[in-house]
Amino acid sequence: MPTQTFFNLPKDKQERIIQGAMKEFSQLPFSEVSIAKIIQHADISRGSFYQYFEHKMDLYCYLIRRFKRNYHELMVAKFREHAGDFYAGYLAFSEYYIRAILESPKFGFFEQLYLNMNYQLNKQSIDILFENDKQEKLVDVVSVADLVVDQTEVEDVFEFLHKLLNQTIMEGFWQEWSIEQTNAQFKRQLDWLFDGLKNHSPQDKERE
C-alpha cells in the first residue's frame, strides 16, 4: 500500500502519479518497467517516489487493488443470487470477471499483467481479491452441503479456483480468444472439477 504521505497529496497529484504508472505498466512487462520513466511522467523526484511507495511492486499492487477492490463484493452477490450454490455462483462470477477484464478501458494494463504473470504476481492478485477482512466472508454465503470439503477448506478452494481463472485468462490473452471462448474454456475446466473425469455408466446414473 502507498504510504500516508501519498494519500496526503492533492488528488490531482495522486492521479498524475497513477496515470504515469499506468502508462508504463500498460506498455511493458513488470520486470521492464522503469521507475525513472514513471517519475518522469508524473513529474516527481526519485526521492519523492520512495516517500510514497516502498518499491515498484508496492505501486503495482496498488494499481491492481484499484481495479479489484469491488470483486469480493461481486462474488458475494453472485453466490447470494444462486442461493449459495458453489458451482453456479462461481461460474456467474467468472463470466462477469472475464468480461470486465477483456472489456476494460485499461485493457493494456491487464494484457501486460496476464501475458507476463508469474507465481508472485498471481499470488498478489489473489491476495488482493480476498484481503479485506471487514467484508462479508465468502464462507458465510456458500453452501458446502453437496461438496466433499467443509467450511474450513472453502478459502483454499477459492484460492485454487482463482488461480485456475487467472491461468485461463492468461491463456486467453496468449491465444487471442474472444470473451465467449475464454468463458467456455473456464466453464469446461470448472465442469471437470465439479463433475469429475469418471465416465459414469447407466447404472451409476440410475443410482444417482
UniProtKB/TrEMBL annotation:
- Identify one Pfam family in the record: TetR_N
Q: What Gene3D superfamilies does this protein's entry cite?
A: Tetracycline Repressor, domain 2
Question: HTH tetR-type domain spans which residues?
Answer: 11-71
Residue spans binding DNA: 34-53
Q: GO molecular function, one example?
A: DNA binding
Keyword line: DNA-binding, Transcription, Transcription regulation
* Signal peptide extent: none
Q: Which superkingdom does the taxonomy of this entry point to? A: Bacteria
Protein's UniProt name: TetR/AcrR family transcriptional regulator
The source organism is: Dolosigranulum savutiense
